């Protein structure tokens, strides 16, 4: 029966294609080829149940300026009820390509200020079977009038995501969402509070402290939101991999990096709690775990051995994994050094420089960047240091000399049993 149905499907598909070929006989060769391919794919999707019946587009409802780029995403639901990313399947069109174009992958390029009302340009995605959806983007360089923050609750629950909504209004009356890359957050009241690029507030504090949140966008400052920290509503947590599958053990090579992810159960949903959990180890020597919410869960294997890593939202909500660090080389730490073994670094007042701490392990041909796993002390207030990480996972310290100062600042680094110092010579 299976083979009979399969043969019948092939016959139906061939018949449909022959009909299409007959209808296209008067077209040019290129048009014929494109139309035949389209007809074949359309019939294949129809028979497999993959033909899209509805579309939704995200990424619009925002104002950008000439020279900016913006990525749209199209999601489709097929005749089986399954959802998939169809951003690269659909045909994209711009209502005003002179003001803003869009490529086959849904990326908008703003070319010039739109002369339409509020600078609106419409972008449309159309499927192979002519199902379409549109979204608007404003292309205009207009002053921001106001930025408004809001939240559904005045409580900031520990460990779990607390969403803050942003709304921006421009001088011409246009209202839209913000470009997260241009939004700056300010949080006061808790050392553990952190807001990610999407306006999600995390904190590991549940003691009832007050938090104050503000933001700035272009030249506009927002209203102040006030929160009171509260115990988590998360009922359980688990370590997960990139496919959100649970696991109980992790094997790393000495010097290898990994990012741990933790999901929590909240109102029958699985949510990311990685930035809000508390971290602990029973063997601190074998690995460094970043507790800064910006990089929470980043792990660097620093010494051979075995141990346990713990993540917790509360005393009763926690999980652990076993961690094993091995090396085919001898792998004994012999020394650490700064940048290219620098002992002194010259800086002008107000100037910044990048600092990296490297570890030399016996038997290793390359040194290992251990900047984030190192401690540091500065003997005065002439310079400040901030930990940063690039998309490539390259970690470094941004050291800045304060404006209008001069003199020497001694910065001492420690990593496991090793110590190294560097002197910053500051000129005004």
In helices, the fraction of residues equals: under 10%
Largest sheet: 5 strands, antiparallel
Report mean pLDDT, rounded to a whole number.
90
Assigned CATH architecture of the largest domain: Sandwich
Taken from the alpha-carbon principal axes, the silhouette is globular
Strand % is: over 45%
First-last Cα distance: 87 Å
Tally of separate domains: 5
Q: What integer value in Å does the Rg equal? A: 28 Å
What is the C-level CATH assignment of the largest domain?
A: Mainly Beta
Helices and strands: which structural class? mainly beta
Total number of helical segments?
2
Unreliable stretches covering 5 or more consecutive residues: 1-25
CATH topology tier name of the largest domain: Immunoglobulin-like
Number of strands: 40
Can you give a write-up of this model?
This is BIG2 domain-containing protein. InterPro entries: Big_2, Invasin/intimin_cell_adhesion. This protein has five domains: 47 residues, no CATH class; 87 residues, Immunoglobulin-like (Sandwich); 79 residues, Immunoglobulin-like; 91 residues, Immunoglobulin-like, CATH 2.60.40.1080; 95 residues, Sandwich (Immunoglobulin-like), CATH 2.60.40.3440. It is globular and about 70 Å long. It is mainly beta. The chain is built from two helices and 40 strands. A hairpin with a 2-residue loop joins strand 18 and strand 19. Strands 11, 13, 14, 16 and 17 form a five-stranded antiparallel beta sheet that branches.
């Amino acid at each position: 029966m299976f083979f009979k149905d399969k043969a019948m499907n092939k016959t139906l598909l061939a018949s449909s294609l022959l009909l299409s070929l007959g209808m296209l006989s008067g077209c040019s060769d290129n048009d014929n080829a494109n139309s035949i391919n389209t007809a074949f794919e359309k019939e294949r999707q129809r028979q497999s149940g993959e033909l899209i019946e509805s579309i939704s587009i995200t990424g619009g409802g925002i104002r950008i300026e000439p020279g900016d780029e913006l990525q749209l995403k199209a999601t489709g639901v097929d005749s089986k009820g399954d959802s998939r990313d169809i951003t690269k399947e659909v045909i994209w069109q711009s209502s005003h390509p002179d003001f803003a174009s869009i490529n086959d992958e849904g990326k908008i390029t703003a070319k010039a200020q739109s002369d339409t009302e509020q600078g609106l340009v419409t972008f449309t995605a159309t499927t192979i079977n002519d199902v379409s959806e549109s979204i608007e983007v404003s292309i205009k360089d207009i002053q921001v009038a106001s930025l408004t923050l809001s939240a559904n609750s005045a409580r900031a629950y520990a460990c779990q995501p607390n969403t803050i909504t942003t709304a921006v209004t421009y001088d011409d009356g246009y209202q839209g969402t913000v470009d997260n890359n241009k939004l700056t957050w300010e949080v006061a009241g808790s050392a553990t509070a952190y807001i990610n690029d999407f306006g999600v507030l995390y904190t590991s504090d549940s003691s009832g402290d007050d938090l104050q949140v503000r933001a700035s966008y272009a030249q506009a400052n927002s209203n102040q939101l006030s929160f009171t920290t509260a115990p988590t509503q998360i009922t359980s947590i688990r370590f997960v991999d990139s496919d959100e599958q649970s696991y109980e053990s992790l094997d790393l090579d000495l010097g290898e990096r990994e990012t741990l992810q933790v999901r929590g159960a909240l109102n029958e949903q699985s949510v990311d709690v990685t930035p809000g959990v508390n971290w602990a180890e029973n063997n601190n020597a074998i690995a460094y775990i970043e507790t800064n919410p910006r990089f929470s869960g980043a792990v660097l294997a620093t010494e051979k051995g075995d141990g346990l890593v713990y993540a917790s939202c509360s005393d009763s909500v926690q999980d652990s994994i076993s961690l094993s660090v091995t090396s085919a080389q001898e792998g004994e730490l012999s020394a650490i050094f700064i940048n290219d073994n620098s002992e002194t670094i010259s800086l002008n007042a107000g100037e910044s420089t990048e600092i990296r701490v490297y570890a030399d392990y016996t038997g290793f041909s390359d040194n290992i960047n251990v900047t984030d796993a190192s401690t540091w002390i500065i003997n005065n207030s002439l310079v400040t240091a901030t930990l940063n990480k690039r998309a490539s996972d390259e970690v470094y310290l941004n050291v800045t000399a304060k404006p209008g100062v001069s003199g020497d600042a001694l910065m001492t680094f420690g990593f496991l049993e090793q110590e190294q110092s560097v002197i910053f010579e500051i000129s005004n």
